[in-house]
Amino acid sequence: MHSAHEHPRQNITIVGTNDPQPLENCYYTCLRRRMIEEQEYEYPLLEYDYRDRRILYEYSHKTIVRNAPIDFFEFGVFEGNSFRQWMQVNTHADSRFYGFDSFEGLPEQWHAGGMEKGHFSTQGQTPSISDSRGQFIKGYFNQSLIPFLHHYERKNRMVIHVDADLCSSSLYVLMTMDPFIKRGTLIVFDDFGPADEYAAFYHYTCACSRQWKIVAARGDHHKLAVVITQ
Predict the structure, then answer these.
(1) Which terminus has fewer CB within 10 Å in the chain: N or C?
(2) E strands, the chain, in order
(3) Which Pfam families does the annotation name (predicted)?
(4) Is residue 149 part of a domain?
(5) What CATH number corresponds to the domain at position 72?
(6) pLDDT per residue rounded down to tens, the chain (230 residues)
(7) What 3-state class would DSSP assign to 159?
(8) 13 in a domain, yes or no?
């Protein structure tokens, strides 16, 4: 809230750089570190390489979902590797799997990942899957998600896999999905980098007054799973 006696706005010059990106990274790195330090409960730190990220999927699924059917949403499908892995982790016949991607690559430059706009493109081709429980919804999230949700009815525990990389994409997804996110929803972040997926999660939980607990994380906390508690 602004006071009636605000001080006049001052121009502040940061010496040594005209690029705000390092400052932004530093800010969110500090927030992320504080977030980790403030967790006053134990959760497993899993050590694995990128190719073994299924370890996190299996642990979080076993801990939160168990043998129940799920409504699985993946944002950022690319070639479908993690999408297929989740279908193998949860084999319940009543589960539903929805993969969202433009399949045209990143909509903007991903600074933290060092990747240009268009990276991760499959030239519009969707992955090949043989499991009838899954389907892909093509288009950028701000074009495809709301039309899909107009006809969606939640039936099972929701699992959201955020692999959108960008803060803008991740924040849009979380804010748009919020009306469907209930207590017990499992959210898994594939690239929980400070200025991107973490920043999106931070602003989402603040804006929507969400509470959560870490289920498990990779040792560097760059990949982690949380469960919504409120």
Answers:
(1) N
(2) 45-46, 70-75, 96-101, 134-138, 157-162, 186-189, 212-218, 224-228
(3) Methyltransf_24 (PF13578)
(4) yes
(5) 3.40.50.150
(6) 333 334 344 444 444 556 778 888 899 999 999 999 999 999 999 999 988 999 999 999 999 999 999 999 999 999 999 999 999 999 999 999 999 999 999 999 998 888 899 999 999 999 999 999 999 999 999 999 999 999 999 999 999 999 999 999 999 999 999 999 999 999 999 999 999 999 999 999 999 999 999 999 999 999 999 999 99
(7) strand
(8) no
